[in-house]
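subagent[fold] <- orchestrator: predict structure for attached chain, return tokens only, no commentary.
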Amino acid sequence: MRGQEDPHGRTIIARPPTVGQLAARVNDLAARPETWWPLATFGAAPVTVPLEEAEGIRVWLTTWPPGRRDEVNCQVSTLVAGELGEVVITPDGVSERPLRANRVRVHGGGAPTGGAHPGGAHASGARAFTNPGPAYAITLHS
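subagent[fold] -> orchestrator:
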């Protein structure tokens, strides 16, 4: 029985990562810019770059050109450079609020494993990030 993962023969079910685990991974990566800064690509449209994937948690970086707005689908995100606003459209109306640098924002209703990339629809309504500033913005997502 030694050396077996489950000596009782039970089936082990892989569970998706929790929102807390996603937030911790994004926060950890944000604190290590040397791992993602060289991968930042600046174009006329938002550019998404996959980063490390571990323990079922996918993380990606997105660069946002000035004046651009695009839908996003993620469970957590953090702004690491520039300025962005989050616009949420639901049947109850539209709300807009700024993203704050170096603060992990948890979004409800995203993909359970953080696997969806920007461009997908949000479960409770459309959610978009918009760059109102004069410079590029950079975000990390899971």
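orchestrator: received. Logging for downstream: The first helix runs from residue 19 to 30. The longest strand covers residues 47-54.
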